[in-house]
Amino acid sequence: MHSIAANWRTSYATDGTPGVHEPTSPFEAWLANLGVTDSLAPFGESGLPHLLVYLLGGDLTPLPGDALPEGSTVVDGGQSYPAIQFRVRQSATDVSWTAEVSTDLLNWNDGSGFTVQVGTPVDNGDGTQTLTVRSLQAIAPGTPRQFLRLQIAGP
After folding, report:
1. CA-based diameter of the chain, in Å?
2. 53, 43 in Cβ contact below 8 A?
């Protein structure tokens, strides 16, 4: 079947890998480089799943946990908003993320009706960028508490 053009594609590996199964995405190539096949298996001693470490660039920090999202407060137009700040590997085009907000930790909402990205991403100089996403609901007396989280999905 070598004569059929549809059976050929660009390799992720230098010089290719003829006759060997090759990863089909940057994340699979990253896993293969580590000798791992389970994306949810713990990364080293961190206890964090490989998928999360990959997206957040946890392997590029002194400790993988250093890359975990952090809660914060953003002031915009004189009002305070709950926010989440997190790193994203710039080459992680095959893994998606969604910032979600909840008032009860049971029902989560996402999208332009609930959250907005604040400013432009900050390049960390290590292949990752830091993003900040805030709730659209300001913190005010009488409003329910809000919680934010990062939901991720891999290939």
Report:
1. 70
2. yes
CA distances to 13, 24, 26, 95 from 10, rounded to whole Å, are: 9, 10, 13, 20
> How many CB atoms within 10 Å of residue 1?
6
Per the CB < 8 A criterion, the answer to whether 130 and 90 are in contact is no
Q: Which domains does the chain have, with CATH numbers?
A: 5-56 (no CATH), 64-153 (2.60.40)
Token readout for 149 is 């989280």
Secondary structure letter of residue 30 according to DSSP: H
Helices (H), ranges, 40-152: 50-56
Question: Could you read off the pLDDT of 87-110 as tens digits, one per residue?
Answer: 999 999 999 999 999 999 999 999
According to the model, what pLDDT value does residue 5 have?
A: 63
